[in-house]
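Handout, section 4.2: multi-component inputs.
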Amino acid sequence: MKFKSIKGTKDILPFEVGAWQLVERTIHDVMRTFNYKEIRTPAFEETSLFARSIGELTDIVSKEMYTFKDRSDDSLTLRPEGTASVLRAYIQHALGEQSPLTKVYYIGPMFRQERPQAGRLRQFHQFGAEAIGSPSPQLDVEMMLMALEVYTNLGIESSTLKINSVGCQKCRPAYKELLIRELRKVYEKLSPESQARVLQNPLRVLDSKDENDQKLTHNAPLIKDHLCSDCTEHFAEARALLDATNTRYQVDGRLVRGLDYYTKTAFEIASSALGSQDALAGGGRYDLLVEELGGKPTPGVGFAAGMERLLMVLAKRELSTDLEVQPVLFIAALNEQSRRWAFVKACELRSKGISVEVDCLGRSLKAQMREANRQHARFVVVIGENELASGSTNLKNMQTGQESPVKLDSLDSVFRA
RNA sequence: GUGUCCAUAGUUCAGUCGGUUAGAACGCCAGGUUGUGGCCCUGGAGGUCGUGGGUUCGAGUCCCACUGGACACCCCA
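Output:
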């Protein structure tokens, strides 16, 4: 085979696109009820936008970005996530000047050059939302509820919400030092990965998957116990709101997100129905990011969720079929004259909003019936010399096999309903 | 980037110890029924055995490299 899709990319084929559309509809519906407007940003940006927002030292920026030079020698990057672009657009178009709180959501492809795995592709799709302009924990909780709402509306129950607070500029530095001091004591025994993280991003040592690391850090201090009063209060209110909305969650003091820009609330929704890559969604507050990108100091919070992973959970259940387009009527024709009549009639009915199919391969009646059956057409009419002469035919119900007479020129009224 | 396993019709897979012309099921096409689908019966089309090298009288089968895939690590959605 000469051409193949690029490693880590996938075609979404006709038979599976119905599930995607169902999920997309659900997302649009949920976002509408929370009053979020859709925003569509370009799939690529200046490289430095991502380096600045996500963080130079993160895995995403240091080794996973699709970065290339265009013909003007500018360094561009296929977006690895959505928040940076949304904030760029927010600042560029001064959306904050038009209203104090901006609530937007997005759906689209993201790109990261990683080794493909279950639930991980190089081009994958995320939906997510951002609320820019308010420091209120209500919006932190709104993010969690929106993601959860999408899942429950799709009948997914196997998800769990974990939350943590990663502090802010006031409390994190002191905690970091404390943590590093503790980690130094067991440094020699830590896994190589964790050793490397002690200085680069010590918080991430705590959520290492390595069992030995977990044991060694069992008694390590957690940031949620070392928050400043502002962050403590914020975290408490977020939890109170989750309780008040009857949302089930666990506080996970070791939860750390991989992007540098988070402050205060961080959360993750995972599914037990997935394999090793079990995070369905993740998000958190980023009160310093807008300023970091050149805007006015503006608090914000957001989340991102993986579409493929969501689809994987859905696929494990018996998904109601019939998500594909199916013609309502198949017009089978027997000779040249009736084939032309069928084609013209089909076009006429289609313009009235009725979905109709005809055979364009010159196939036998039997083959046309087989095709109508395969397409799950609800009705079939057969047109030949006799029918054109008499002006009437039989309308066959493909489910029951029953036929009933119908006038050719009243076909459209039969399907008006 | 690292590791393990894998790669044979459109799909899911057989293929013995290295030995003649690489098979099955499903799907597709046609016929059985001169104008009626599904079920059944019959027939047909469809393969560079991932690619390239090597060993051998002989390779789908053994060896090496590459490419791709699955899973895990790292990390993330």
